[in-house]
Amino acid sequence: MRQLKVAVIGCGNVAPVHLAAATTNPSAQLIAVCDTKEERAKKASQKYGAPYYTDYNEVLALKPDLIHVCTPHHRHAEITIAAANKGIHTLTEKPMAVTLHDADRMIQAARDQNVTLGVIFQNRYNLSSLAVKEAVTSGALGKVLGGRLFVTWLRDDEYYSKSDWKGTWDMEGGGVLIDQAIHTMDLMQWIMGPIDSLEGSIRNRTHDIIHVEDVAEATVFFKNGAIGSLYACNFYSYDADVFLEVHGENGVARLEKDKAVIRIKGLPEKVVYAEGDREVIGKSYWGVSHKIQIDEFYADVLANRPVKIDGVVGRKALEFVRAIYYSGTHDGELVQFPFAEPKGFTPPSLTRR
């Protein structure tokens, strides 16, 4: 059996789920870990049995077949493009980039060099998410009329004070939307279908040490005629369960954290849980499906076949986020899709008010 030589770049909070997948898949050989913070890289090296580096260029020089990018958001494009130019496949954490321009550069680099670019949106693989998707695509729910999304979590100033990159437009790329809500936003547009336009607002209402949004709302108009409502904040009193509901002519299908509840007229209520018998690694709200997506990515690369969530697909959630940022900084202007993000667009500093 051919093994992929794999390296993980970035050894922060999300890295353990990638490292666990890389070291338990018989098709992969972990050859390096990397982090600019040496102690963190060294700790990962000791735990997972691979040499450590502090410069990703040294890792690329080892000629791995594939890298995982788990760095701060603003490094994703730089590292992915450098890897592509050396013929190396990349699986990057969300968001794939902080701007659509950078995302497009990543997609083009992968195409030019004939390498695979994948983006982590593991919740699409949850059994509960798949059940809601099936309720829509099978027609069981009937014509989709509307949807609503709520993400209300807690990330206080103490949380932001512990990071040297979060809470910034240039490095994190934003606040609650691009970090906490993006997974549920991805599910909304994946399940409900292509977006036609949206209007949004963003504010910083409770944080003193950041200049990005801690609350956002949007009205989303879908090409199929459905209308969606989105609300996200990271100043609630605790990490409440995320909520996504799709309303159709024949009933409703909901995601309540990791559980699907599907109510179709004339049929018994159906409840589906995300985990089944899968092991949860890392933070509970990451779900259980990182390993499933990673294993599938490895298999697709080895078989030289397209991946389900490539750069083009991964870009859609970023487009959703960036369109709200644009609308929210232009007095709620209606943004048409596809969103032609002006090159160099960065929202202004949002001070508390």
Mean pLDDT: 95
Beta-strand residue fraction: 15-25%
Summarize the main sheet. Answer: 9 strands, mixed
Oligomeric state of shown chains? single chain
Enumerate the spans where pLDDT stays under 50 for 5 or more consecutive residues.
277-286
Please name the fourth-level CATH homologous superfamily of the largest domain.
Dihydrodipicolinate Reductase, domain 2
CATH topology of the largest domain: Dihydrodipicolinate Reductase, domain 2
Number of helices: 10
Q: Walk across the major sheet and give the strand order.
A: 14-13-12-11-7-10-9-8-15
TL;DR?
The protein has 353 residues and is an alpha/beta fold. It has two domains: 4-121, NAD(P)-binding Rossmann-like Domain (Rossmann fold); 123-275 and 311-336, Dihydrodipicolinate Reductase, domain 2 (2-Layer Sandwich). The chain has helices at 15-24, 38-48, 56-60, 76-84, 100-113, 127-137, 157-161, 176-192, 290-303, 311-328, and strands at residues 4-9, 28-34, 52-53, 66-69, 89-92, 117-119, 144-152, 195-203, 215-222, 227-233, 243-248, 251-256, 259-264, 270-273, 335-336.
Verbal overview:
The chain has 353 residues and is α/β, with parallel strands linked by helices. The protein has two domains: 4-121, 3-Layer(aba) Sandwich (Rossmann fold); 123-275 and 311-336, Dihydrodipicolinate Reductase, domain 2. It contains ten helices and 15 strands. Helix 1 (15-24) packs across helix 9 (290-303) and helix 8 packs across helix 10 (311-328). The chain starts with a strand and ends in a 17-residue tail after the last strand.
Quick tags:
10 helices, 9-stranded mixed beta sheet, globular, Rossmann fold, 15 strands, 353 residues, 2 domains, Dihydrodipicolinate Reductase, domain 2, alpha/beta, 24% strand
